[in-house]
Amino acid sequence: HITPEKFYVEACDDGADDVLAIDRVSTEVTLTVKKDVPPSAVTRPIFGILGTIRLVAGTYLIVITKKKKIGEIFSHAIWKATDFDILSYKKTMLHLTDIQLQDNKVFLSMLNHVLSVDGFYFSTTYDLTHTLQRLANTSPEFQEMSLLER
């Protein structure tokens, strides 16, 4: 969900009530609940957040807008991110000079080129950041941790 003040990222899992709120001015990230999302917010589906990047015009949020299932590891779905959107935290570019606007446009073009190259994979249930060998040699406590905690 997008408002002039915040980005709200809502999980689609059954029973999930938490919503990630990202302040577009302070860039502060907090957890809130669904009822805090204003009804006026523009809503669109995404499949994940790739991250943030700071360019000349300010901070941008990079989200995954399309995905393709490419396989499974131990019954865990592995997805390939196939399309992205780059969302500006700033509501306007009036604070930039013509040269800054041009530089920002070039950097966005370069970023779009990098994102168009194959190779962005993710799983919401399996740890792709560690090899199977390393995972086999970790403690039971580590294996019980959520992917976020790892």
Helix-strand blueprint:
Elements: E1 6-10, E2 18-23, E3 29-33, E4 48-55, E5 58-73, E6 76-88, H1 98-116, E7 121-122, H2 132-136, H3 140-144
Antiparallel strand pairs: 1-2, 2-3, 4-5, 5-6, 6-7
What's the gist of this structure?
One of its GO terms (biological process) is phosphatidylinositol dephosphorylation. By secondary structure, the protein is an alpha+beta fold. It folds into two domains: 1-42, no CATH class; 44-149, no CATH class.
Strand content: 35-45%
- Radius of gyration (CA) equals 18 Å
Quaternary state of the chains:
single chain
Provide the low-confidence segments as ranges.
none
SSE string:
EEEEEEHEHH
| Anisotropy-based shape | globular
Distance between the termini: 27 Å
Protein name: Phosphatidylinositol-3-phosphatase SAC1
EC number: 3.1.3.64
Enzyme class: hydrolase
Domain SAC: 47-140
Please explain how this structure is put together.
The chain crosses the membrane at residues 46-64. This is Phosphatidylinositol-3-phosphatase SAC1. This protein is of the alpha+beta class. The chain has three helices and seven strands, in the order ββββββαβαα. The strands form two sheets. A four-stranded antiparallel beta sheet has the order 4-5-6-7, with helices on one face. The radius of gyration is 18 Å and the shape is globular.
